Amino acid sequence: MENAFQNLWQNPLWGKFQEAIGLKVWTVEISGASALIIRHPLPFGLCWLEIPRGPLFGDKKDLSEVLKKVEEIGKTEKAVFIRFSPYEEAKISKVGRHKIVLSKHDHQPQTSLIIDLSQTEEEILAQMHPKGRYNIKVAERHEITVEESQDIDAFYALLQKTGGRDGFGIHPKSYYQKMLAVFGPLCQLLIARHDGKPIAGGIFVYLDDWGIYYYGASDNAHRNLMAPYLVQWSAIKEAKRSGCKHYDFLGIAPEHVKNHPWAGVTEFKKKFGGKILNYPRAKEMVLRPFWHFLYRLLKR
């Protein structure tokens, strides 16, 4: 399949990373479609299966055929449902006797912000919000340095501060270590320092056509130095040097949604310009209707 792996979450490396953090993974391929599948455990020996940003498929028939193969795995694994979230709209309502319904949850964001890296650096700066350009210059005036680092301890300390401040959960330190190890040179940890002290950082992936901002962290005590802006600008330039065609901020609050938990980070990301991209809603193939109802009830 042409360009089959130009999608981080359907790339074999993503499967290796998921295995490294203890999850079970399969890859299913037919002539016109493929799917990387991840098993997420539930109580009572049950689970649910995820096909993140997939399946990759040519047409509706290919999609139906590959989902039939995934269904077989789901039955063997006692899956309650199979969630899939391809980039293209999956116009399918049933696989065999199993209904397809819209998902109420998804690990993948529904809306993202993308910068076109075919532009020159000057053009990328010019399309930014004026405050974005200004904040990059503020960081440079304060002599913030941004360098590739292996100092996961410094990044994790910043991440703990950020999670506590902004009220979101973080993974164990080993999760980020394994991500860097599995992706190797395709994954980069950048740390911003002021007078030698780490004050901001981020983990970025540069794979095929895509540079992706995956995780970010900063020390609120130094927010006036605008270090996160220089970290992003460094990553955007690195993605361009690596031959990527697009820079993906990964997720922002959907448009016209008030009081979204991502409102603050969305305001930050939008200062870099780019175009908003909306993805189709994720869908779920329901294998065990009663347990699926309970799952949704508990997640509500």
Q: Regions with pLDDT < 50 over 5+ consecutive residues?
A: none
What's the end-to-end separation, in Å?
A: 38 Å
Please identify which CATH superfamily of the largest domain we are dealing with: Gcn5-related N-acetyltransferase (GNAT)
> Could you tell me the mean pLDDT?
94
Choose one word for the global shape. globular
The profile of the biggest β sheet is: 8 strands, mixed
Q: How many strand units? A: 15
| Number of helical segments with 4 or more residues | 9
**Based on the structure given, which CATH architecture of the largest domain is correct?**
3-Layer(aba) Sandwich
Structural class: alpha+beta
Beta fraction? 25-35%
Helix content: 25-40%
Taking Cα atoms only, what radius of gyration do you get, to the nearest Å?
A: 20 Å
CATH class category label of the largest domain = Alpha Beta
The figure for the number of domains is: 2
CATH topology of the largest domain: Aminopeptidase
Secondary-structure element string:
HEEEEHEEEEHHEHHEEEHEHEEH
